[in-house]
């Protein structure tokens, strides 16, 4: 095993909840399309796949069968770390958000650590009671929470849940900068957020849309991990759509290499994050 301090965990978020084929024809939507894209990203070097699913109309969904199919197809073909969303839509019941990770036992799942006015449009609700329940449910099945932070107060929510024993150290954070209603995607804001973190933790960051690259470079310079993919940004460069999520993976690999680091393999990622579920996955 190489020295893990020079390893960068690269998460790919291929699908997300929102982009449609009318936004980019290259977005993978069905379980088959998404699994194929994830396997290609794995072959290009990605460490973790953050998975959303869509319903038959391609709308945001937490449909259990779609998650089950997607996870099954990915696990048949590669050992990439699987990270399921718990937020595939707005206004969903707790059980609908919890069931996929409880039954499919991914190694990680997203933990959106507070509520916000989502894109000046609706309330993305993650109540204190829901977060306590979510943490307990994740602990019960050894799923590592990826604490998604859209604004500074969400770091403090995580520290509160840690102090109360709902979340367990070491925490892993993912800063999502640039969603309207949350903190803007600037390098200064990222630095401010990183300074709020407890000592013993890991973190990654991403900027939405055209702030994708500056936030990636800043995160790497600060020793963080990174996320790419069409969930966050559909353009490879100004006016040019990415034709595959692998283009983002390949570019990130080059950037990380120029910094004298390498992308963590899935097994290195498991060691770095203390993931537990790989050998306990349900047989499908
Ligand atoms: Zn997501």
Q: Could you describe the 3D structure shown?
A:
The strands form five sheets. An eight-stranded parallel barrel has the order 2-3-6-7-10-11-12-13, surrounded by eight helices. A two-stranded parallel sheet has the order 1-16. The model has no long low-confidence stretch (mean pLDDT 96). Helix 2 runs parallel beside helix 3 and helix 3 packs parallel to helix 4. Helix 6 links the parallel strand 11 and strand 12. The chain is globular and about 45 Å long. 37% of the residues lie in helices and 21% in strands. It contains nine helices and 16 strands. The two termini are 30 Å apart. Zinc ion (ZN) binds next to loops. The site of zinc ion has 7 residues, from loops.
Describe the SSE topology.
Elements: E1 7-8, E2 10-12, H1 31-44, E3 48-51, E4 53-54, E5 60-61, H2 64-77, E6 81-84, H3 94-104, E7 108-112, E8 116-118, E9 122-124, H4 128-140, E10 144-149, H5 152-163, E11 171-177, H6 187-195, E12 201-207, H7 212-221, E13 225-228, E14 235-237, E15 240-241, H8 245-258, E16 262-263, H9 266-273
Parallel strand pairs: 1-16, 2-3, 2-13, 3-6, 6-7, 7-10, 10-11, 11-12, 12-13
Antiparallel strand pairs: 4-5, 8-9, 14-15
Helix pairs in contact: 1-2, 1-8, 2-3, 3-4
The chain binds zinc ion.
